[in-house]
Amino acid sequence: MHELQRLRTLHILLVDDDPDACNRIQQALGSDFHLYHAHSLIEARQHLKEYIPDLVICEVLLGKESGLELCRFIRNTPSLLYLPIMLLTSLTTLQDKIAGFDAGADDYVVKPYDARHLMARIRLLARMKNLEQQYD
Amino acid sequence: MKKVLVIDDNPTIVELIKYAVNLQSAFQVIVAYDGEEGLKSVYAENPVCVIIDVKMPRMDGYKLVRCLRGDTRTANIPLIILSAMTREEDQMTGLLSGVDEYLTKPFKPGALNAAIERVLLLTPADRQRRMDYLLQTHAERE
Hints:
The structure holds 2 protein chains of 2 kinds.
Chain A: E1 10-15, H1 19-29, E2 33-38, H2 41-50, E3 55-58, E4 61-62, E5 65-66, H3 67-75, E6 85-89, H4 94-102, E7 107-110, H5 115-135
Parallel strand pairs in A: 1-2, 1-3, 3-6, 6-7
Antiparallel strand pairs in A: 4-5
Chain B: E1 2-7, H1 11-22, E2 27-32, H2 35-45, E3 49-52, H3 61-69, E4 79-83, H4 88-97, E5 101-104, H5 109-121, H6 124-141
Parallel strand pairs in B: 1-2, 1-3, 3-4, 4-5
Helix pairs in contact in B: 1-5, 2-3
């Protein structure tokens, strides 16, 4: 683990209408990640106007809203084109997954998640998008 | 008989892979011709190993790999990418997505069968170690 602790702090925008979700994920991820929490799409869009994080983690089910709308917004915004999006959701069907990728998500992680696995996937996804940006 | 799932939109390549895997007489080869159909087959057929092309209609191979690795039900299925994309960054994207082996086309039957044997021996701990290694490499580059 000591080697992994050398990794730089990633700034993550978590979009979830569950007030406890942020605490649970912050607990799972530890201090290596800086988490910002948006409870709605409006909050998320506002945050993205002011500050571009290293990665967005988004629940699909956001009350009457859908995380897929945020995916489409990000993919249609030139300045956010390479922003990695992970859907972290309790929706598990094939159709849900396909819809998630179609909307522009880069990764789809089903709850419940293993904390160590999630941490690794977040970092690998960030690196993958960096690579994409470099070679495009 | 244990199943190996091949996901590739090129019927000629599929036949070549079938021929290669059938040399072992150890697996039943099942086929899907695009990413979405492949994803459905993984859940329906419960294969012991999946061989995946990258460039496919509907869902590309990298996304398919990420989708499988992101669900605890499929996170530890052995996955091999067999692709015509030979650049280093393509291979790196495959590995970062969570694939166990990245082979390039054209391929030799023996190399594919050896890769299948290797990935079948991998444990969840081996995959975690690989992820840690990739992250360590990441730290060095940052």
